Amino acid sequence: MAVGVSSAVVLGLNTPVSTAAENVLRADRAVARSCFAGVLPARTAGVDRREVASTVDGLVQARLAAKDGGSGDWDVAVFDKTTGKLVAASTALGSRELAESFVTKGQQLVVQGCRYAGDARSVVLGVDFLALTPQGTPTPGVTAETAPERAELVRVTTADQQDKNKLLGLGLDVTEKADATGVDVVIAGEADRKVLRESGFRFEVLNPDLSATSRENARKDVEFASRTERTELPSGRTSYRHLWEYNYEMKELARKNPKLVRAFTLPNPTVEGLDVVGVEVATNVANTADGKPVNLLMALHHAREWPSAEHAMEWIYELVDGYSHDREIRGLLERTRNIIIPVVNADGFNISREAEPKGDFSRFDYEMKRKNCQAGDSPEQFRTGVCKANPAGAQRGTDPNRNYAGFWGGEGASTSWSGETFRGSTPFSEPETRNIRELVSNRQVTNLMTLHTYSNLVLRVPGVFGTRPPLDEPLNKALGDLMASRNGYTSQPSWALYDTSGTTEDWSYWATGGYGYTMEIGLDGFHPQYSTGVVAEYLGQAPAQGAGKGGNRAAFLDMLKNAATPEAHSTLVGTAPRGYELALRKSFQTPTSPVRQPDGTTKPAIYVQDTLNSKLEATGGRFTWAVNPSTRPYVAGRYGRDPQGPVQQSVQLANPEGVPAENRRFPSDPTGDRIPFTIKGMPEVDNGKVAVTINWGTPATDWDLFVVDADGQVVTSSASGDTNSETAVLYDPPAGEYTAVVVNYSQANPATPDDWSGGRVEFAGPVPATYGPKESYTLTCKDRRGRLVGLTDVFVDRGQTVDVGAVCTDSARATKQRKR
Ligand code: 0X9
Ligand code: ZN
């Protein structure tokens, strides 16, 4: 058994390769350099290495562990001895490293350890080889459909929100490409195809061979990198980074800019034992309790969404470069703190990025993995093995973007361990979501953006329709629209696509009041060609929708400027002696959704306790503290409006003469009855809701209903099967001319058509706003010896500045707030 290593692997065996004595790497000096750039000559300062031959066809794992709890930063890299090519590397901030990749039996390897920083002269090395059954061979006792299969992209027609929820519930790989009439879904193989067929959904194939597209993209990426010296990206990067490059670049940026950049490890390592790394960028970066607003940009909750992490990484370079070259960015870095976490799901990304072969799409296709590496919820026989090679393949894991507490357990998440949107066993059951939760709970994160791919969207809360928008809806919309004006994306609330529960900002926003957005970068796939998905989208160049508008870099700048705007969040001012510590605390519980069960029933909501606790280190005299509003949006109330006029009279839709021919391809085939109608507006009427309905005789006949605006866009639809009516709904519709298109999908008996009738448009007023109670923070002050010297409640709204006075020294006054 190699020292410091233990892995139980169902698909392989754990083979010791060296004795304990050989397992300690030593270097007298620390040298800050890349360990993975190449094999360094023997006896180079700061380096030690071992040579091993692989005993298996399978995986090599090279681990480092600190010796005797020593502090220091060692990195590790594994090379093929013959070619000198890099096999795997690991570059975390400390000395706990795991480099893992595929090797063949007999392959000669060089394992190189590098002492990057710190005073640990030695570190423990463990090397393991894990034999794998060849891909596609079922493990004994495990039935698996493993042969590479035909993967395709299909467009599934959905009638309405309820239908979308039903589709989501199937656990298929549903993309964000969705509108009023349907959703794009990745069909990985026969099993998925069967699920879709048996569900009764109608679909049309958009890309019959996703594997070919994937291989083609990989080939073009190699080509692009070889003919491009440097891109216009802030880093000049020409290809997708590996996990070790992200971590290494972050620590190099911190080393080279110690006053401006701080690299840190998030509190929870991943299931596989990887550290998750982030950076903070601000003037005087070390003083994290200086009261400046925190702007958080993170990416890669989903393993295969590589461009998202690239965008986050480029933004770090943008800020660092901007500090010395751009007055505006310099000013913003003086007024805000920026936290960037490029790879939230480190396990998943590492697997997806290193996977071979590309474009397989079988259950063992790790390139298209979405989730994390959680195995605790899998059936017994799938619970073992390292994540790169386990009997459940890429099906293993929890969807980190369904595991946050916000409305957890509701629609739009899978209850099954193998579903692509599996919500996890409980809210925050995963290390990845706990990392973000702890960060957001302990800092005043006034602005949060989480990057995903794909579909060109700027999404805001809520993700679940039934939640109704928060009172901040107009502000949330304004900032979302502004960012969308830079990248050309569609700005809308998340629910407008379909319900999703347990997503990042549906926890962070409703619990803290910090703005929260999801951006879905790009239009063609989870990791399209680097030149389009990263370079063009980031910079705003053709073929990106943001060409000439500034691109995502400009959108990120809008977010940062918003963070720097006091009117956008809340502010506490007061005075405190130097070295005193102020703390702002709030503890509350929020219900999840009623928890959906696999059998369709629901169990009561779970009450999840959150504690928000942030600190300010007084510098003496007056302080300014940028904070989120004290009242949670969850209790503050819901956005709505009081009716400004009467509701419009209902309108009858007359069925034109004759029955249109059967048509299963609307809107590509426009055949159908067309009945124009008018939706009126202010000052005459105030419509909050419009419902268009048709009826017919037998559910065996199928009519579909679409509503098209004056530009010919389908704005809503209703296209269910097995019913004898359809109702299509629109909320807060713009006044104008519309057309109801009634499509004859199929007739029970074409000889005697069952024509539709009873067509009508009905109107309802807007839903008025509701207002909840106000919540407070508890503000405390401790003196330099840690004694509590001040305590008061603080109520502060968005845009408001509250003077808490001399809270540390004058507690009588401290209890009285004074609004400036
Ligand atoms: O499903 C997700 O987690 C996100 N989309 S992705 O394709 N990147 O996986 C977006 C979640 C928010 N979207 C909706 N509420 N529809
Ligand atoms: Zn995603």
The top level CATH class name of the largest domain: Alpha Beta
N-to-C CA distance: 67 Å
Structural class: alpha+beta
Strand content: 25-35%
What would you say the CATH architecture of the largest domain is? 3-Layer(aba) Sandwich
Spatial order of the strands forming the largest sheet: 14-15-17-16-18-21-19-20
CATH domain topology of the largest domain: Aminopeptidase
Residue runs with pLDDT of under 50 for 5 or more positions: 1-19, 136-146, 813-820
GO molecular function, one term: zinc ion binding
Cofactor: Zn(2+)
Active site: 520 (proton donor/acceptor)
Organism: Umezawaea endophytica
Write a structural description.
The chain is α+β, with helices and mostly antiparallel strands and 820 residues long. It has five domains: 3-132, Jelly Rolls (Sandwich), CATH 2.60.120; 152-208, Alpha-Beta Plaits (2-Layer Sandwich), CATH 3.30.70; 217-568, 3-Layer(aba) Sandwich (Aminopeptidase), CATH 3.40.630.10; 572-637 and 771-819, no CATH class; 651-767, Sandwich (Jelly Rolls), CATH 2.60.120. The chain is built from 14 helices and 41 strands. N~2~-sulfamoyl-L-arginine binds next to strand 11 and strand 21.
Layout of strands and helices, then pairs:
Layout: E1 14-15, E2 24-26, E3 47-53, E4 58-66, E5 72-80, E6 86-90, E7 97-103, E8 108-118, E9 122-131, E10 152-157, H1 161-169, E11 173-178, E12 182-187, H2 190-199, E13 202-207, H3 210-227, H4 243-256, E14 261-265, E15 277-281, E16 294-299, H5 306-325, H6 327-335, E17 337-341, H7 346-354, H8 431-442, E18 445-453, E19 457-460, H9 473-487, E20 490-493, H10 504-512, E21 515-521, H11 530-539, H12 551-563, E22 570-576, E23 581-591, E24 595-596, E25 602-603, E26 607-617, E27 621-627, H13 633-636, E28 637-638, E29 651-653, E30 673-679, E31 689-695, E32 702-708, E33 714-718, E34 725-731, E35 736-746, E36 757-764, E37 770-771, E38 777-782, E39 788-794, E40 801-803, H14 811-814, E41 818-819
Parallel strand pairs: 16-17, 16-18, 18-21, 19-20, 22-40
Antiparallel strand pairs: 1-9, 2-9, 3-8, 4-7, 4-9, 5-6, 5-8, 10-12, 10-13, 11-12, 14-15, 15-17, 19-21, 22-27, 23-26, 23-38, 24-25, 28-37, 29-36, 30-35, 31-34, 31-36, 32-33, 32-35, 38-39, 40-41
Helix pairs in contact: 5-6, 5-11, 9-12, 11-12
Bound molecules: N~2~-sulfamoyl-L-arginine (0X9) and zinc ion (ZN).
Residues 301-302, 305, 401, 452 line the site of zinc ion (ZN).
